[in-house]
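Suppose you are handed a protein chain with no further information: no name, no annotation, nothing but its sequence. What can you learn? This example shows the usual starting point.
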Amino acid sequence: MQTPFDFLERTKSAVEHLLDGINEYIAILNPAAGPILVGIYKTQAERGAAMARWIKYNQSEFQQAQQVQRDYMAEQDAMGVLCGSLLQIAAVGVERYGRNQIIPGNIYPSIKAGSRQEKFCTGRLIRNVQLGLVIYAARNQYNHLDELELHKTSTAVMNLLATEHDYGPGIRDPAYDMQNRQLDNYLQCFDPMINTAAKRESVEDPNPSLGHSRRLYAECRV
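A reasonable first move is to predict its three-dimensional structure. Written in structure tokens, the prediction is:
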């Protein structure tokens, strides 16, 4: 019978290739860092004049940064496919080998005891949401992009991600807000989270012997 570690080992190469691909798309943005205006001005007119000079002087850099951003946005669908594939592998690992039976209070109304979603209520917290639930919600939408609405559990996860932050009361983070019409699909909401994890893995490997895929599932404690 296949063990969790067998599954991790057999999917390790796929996970590493997916992370490499995601990092390759992220690298498109590396030249996009533009100039920053810093100064102290006595009047609004003085500030406006300084801003005008600064914009004129750095026009070529602004244009370069805008082109880099356009190049990156052109690859969003392609990167979404890689992110979705990574989430699929993670979700399969949790669903096959997860043993969690505790449902947190902030998500309880949307998950029934003994349901398949119960296994995903595990892992480190991201905005007071277990990593396993983030994986579940993102993977669910990735596999159901043709549906107009998220499933009940996924909706609850998205609402928590949009509100459980330190931006201030009553503010919904547009990156996770289902009412944000600028999002082509909800999978885009999770891209920054996946990208950050992928970038962190490529820069610093705290446990090289464990491998990308093993660290991914270890965080969910499957």
